[in-house]
């Protein structure tokens, strides 16, 4: 068996250690480095700014504790209860007539680094190819000052590190080194993956983590019929009472408890899920098709591609660790079949409701018992994937997922709460995260009165934080004006609950000078002065 009140954000500098009595050279950086069983260096770090604490590694794997080998997706943070054992990126394609696959499961086909112009892997022993980690507002940490722009990490318009969320990670890895798992191809895809992970402390998103896989074909061959999947082995408390399902309208797959009493989480156990937010874009040639997205999410860099469309969620597959079909793929051909939505023997799923073959298993509604719902429980794995698509050499595709968890009044009500959270996440994504990037609810305690605090720092260059408190539930606006009274930007324009908030103002592109910010909420209004000094 496998084995807001005010939030203070800290990044713990972890001790370097090794499973093989070899140590990576200390570098004064946050994180933790070790060598796997094949003496390959791996960097690991927790994404834990909000209610989820999860391990990430720069070998395509995440959610597994690198020290104990046990489950590493802890929720709530600090509870010592875990909902996911191990997760990772799975890829497969047909290239020059060969079936190629790469996975991160319990052994890993990815290593730190990249593929050079000659098609050779580089960087596996380079200490610069590690996990970089920054906290929003940071401007002095080692990782902020050494942000790996040359590796593909996102930057803002000023060339500084781009804060995707409250906490942001970046790293680069490739499958071009020899594969370590025994059920994938010996030959590599020669893929480079630029992975960005982020999370928010804002109310409504504290039980969500975001992951972007930016996948680059660095081989000299076309990837045909390529599939990319978020694979996960969920152990929702006890692993033996898990049930899975997908919601094709919401583009989510999830694990829930078969009964209302889990041995670990107790009564009313939560539901944990994976959500597809951005799928690859493919050319259609139809002028009625247009793909729009921000690159990266939260930036002002809008990409509009006429004649293209998003693929959407194409695969939801599952298997267990037992011998009956469908079960774990054992060889490369079986792994590709599973990634593409089939059983490992090539058999198709048949939806019992319409008797039609499908690649979207268990797409019914467990809360109402309608449609195709799984019966019985087991130690399940599932893949939520996209494809097939073709990628030419040096083409890039981005796939963005969220992993999220919710708890309701019962095991089935937890599914409803998870779907409600999914809808909220989709709304934030559709609005390019603007509300959470500008305002942060740092306390839900009800203040005695309305207040507008002096911004800090002041003077500032180029960003500053504005804190305010609301004693009631009101429609709130927070606007910035120049010295002549001309409105520069509206930071807040929405109904907000009682609490204490922080909004960030970015004065990039504005001249030095005196500016004013005005808070209006209900019958309360206050204005304060601030200085931009460049």
How would you sum up this structure in a few lines?
7% of the residues lie in helices and 41% in strands. The chain contains four helices and 38 strands.
Query: Any idea how many domains?
Result: 2
Beta-strand share of residues: 35-45%
Number of helices: 4
Number of strands: 38
Low-confidence sequence ranges: 1-31, 34-39
Instruction: Tell me roughly what share of residues is in helical segments.
Output: under 10%
Shape type: globular
Query: Ends: how far apart?
Result: 59 Å
**Major sheet description:** 9 strands, antiparallel
Determine the structural class based on helices, strands and strand pairing.
mainly beta
- Gyration radius from CA atoms, angstroms: 24 Å
Overall mean confidence score, pLDDT = 89
Explain what you see:
This protein has 534 residues and is mainly beta. It has 2 domains: 32-282 and 311-434; 445-532, Immunoglobulin-like, CATH 2.60.40. The chain contains 4 helices and 38 strands. Strands 9, 12, 13, 14, 15, 17, 18, 21 and 30 form a 9-stranded antiparallel sheet that branches. Strand 10 and strand 11 (121-122) form a beta hairpin. The longest helix is centred in the last third of the chain and has 20 residues, at 411-430.
Summary tags:
534 residues; 6-stranded antiparallel sheet; 4 helices; mainly beta
Protein topology:
Elements: E1 32-35, E2 41-47, E3 53-57, E4 61-62, E5 73-74, E6 82-84, E7 86-95, E8 98-102, E9 111-112, E10 114-115, E11 121-122, E12 132-135, H1 142-145, E13 167-174, E14 191-199, E15 208-217, E16 223-233, E17 242-247, E18 252-257, E19 261-262, E20 266-267, E21 271-278, E22 281-283, E23 290-294, E24 302-306, E25 308-310, E26 315-320, H2 332-339, E27 349-351, E28 356-358, E29 380-391, E30 396-406, H3 411-430, H4 434-438, E31 439-443, E32 451-452, E33 463-470, E34 474-482, E35 487-496, E36 499-506, E37 513-521, E38 524-532
């Amino acid at each position: 068996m496998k084995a807001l009140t005010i939030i203070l954000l800290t990044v713990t500098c972890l001790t370097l250690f090794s499973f093989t009595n070899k140590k990576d050279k200390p570098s004064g950086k946050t994180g933790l480095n070790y060598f796997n069983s094949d003496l390959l260096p791996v960097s690991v770090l927790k994404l834990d700014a909000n209610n989820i604490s999860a391990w990430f590694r720069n070998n395509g794997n995440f959610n597994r504790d690198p020290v104990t080998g046990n489950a590493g997706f802890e929720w709530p943070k600090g509870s010592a209860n875990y909902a996911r054992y191990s997760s990772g990126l799975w890829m497969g394609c047909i290239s020059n007539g060969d079936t190629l696959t790469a996975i991160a499961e319990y052994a890993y086909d990815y290593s730190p680094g990249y593929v050079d112009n000659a098609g050779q892997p580089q960087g596996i022993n380079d200490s610069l190819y590690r996990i970089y980690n920054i906290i929003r507002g940071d401007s002095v940490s080692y990782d902020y000052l050494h942000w790996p722009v040359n590796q593909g990490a996102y930057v803002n318009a000023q060339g500084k590190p781009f804060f995707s969320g409250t906490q942001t990670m970046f790293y680069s890895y490739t499958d071009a080194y020899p594969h370590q798992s025994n059920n994938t191809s010996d030959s590599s895809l020669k893929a480079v993956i630029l992975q960005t992970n982020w999370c928010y402390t804002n109310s409504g998103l504290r039980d969500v983590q975001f992951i972007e896989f930016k996948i680059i074909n660095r081989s000299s061959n076309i990837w045909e019929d390529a599939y990319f999947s978020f694979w996960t082995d969920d152990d929702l408390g006890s692993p033996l009472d898990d049930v899975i399902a997908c919601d094709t309208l919401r583009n989510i797959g999830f694990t829930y408890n078969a009964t209302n009493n889990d041995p670990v989480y107790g009564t009313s156990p939560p539901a944990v899920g994976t959500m597809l937010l951005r799928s690859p874009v493919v050319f259609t040639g139809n002028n009625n098709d247009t793909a729009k997205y921000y690159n990266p999410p939260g930036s002002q860099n809008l990409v509009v591609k006429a004649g293209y469309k998003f693929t959407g969620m194409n695969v939801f597959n599952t298997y267990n660790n037992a011998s009956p079909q469908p079960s774990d793929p054992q060889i490369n051909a079986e792994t590709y079949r599973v990634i593409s939505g089939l059983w490992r023997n090539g058999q198709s799923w048949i939806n019992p409701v319409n008797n039609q073959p499908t690649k979207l298993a268990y797409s019914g509604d467990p809360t109402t018992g309608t449609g195709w719902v799984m019966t019985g429980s087991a130690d399940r794995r599932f893949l939520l994937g996209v494809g097939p698509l073709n990628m030419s050499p040096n083409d890039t595709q981005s796939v963005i997922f969220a992993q999220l968890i919710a708890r309701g009044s019962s095991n089935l009500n937890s599914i409803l709460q998870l779907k409600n959270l999914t809808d909220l996440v989709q709304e934030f994504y559709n609005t390019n995260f603007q509300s959470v990037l500008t305002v942060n609810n740092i306390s839900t305690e009800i203040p005695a009165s309305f207040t507008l605090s002096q911004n800090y720092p002041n003077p500032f260059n180029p960003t500053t934080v504005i804190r305010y408190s609301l004693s009631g539930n009101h429609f709130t606006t927070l606007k910035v004006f120049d010295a002549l009274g001309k409105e520069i930007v509206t930071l807040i324009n929405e109904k907000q609950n009682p609490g204490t908030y922080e909004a960030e103002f970015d004065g990039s592109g504005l001249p030095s000078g005196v500016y004013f910010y005005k808070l209006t909420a209900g019958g309360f209004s206050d204005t304060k002065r601030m200085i931009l000094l460049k």
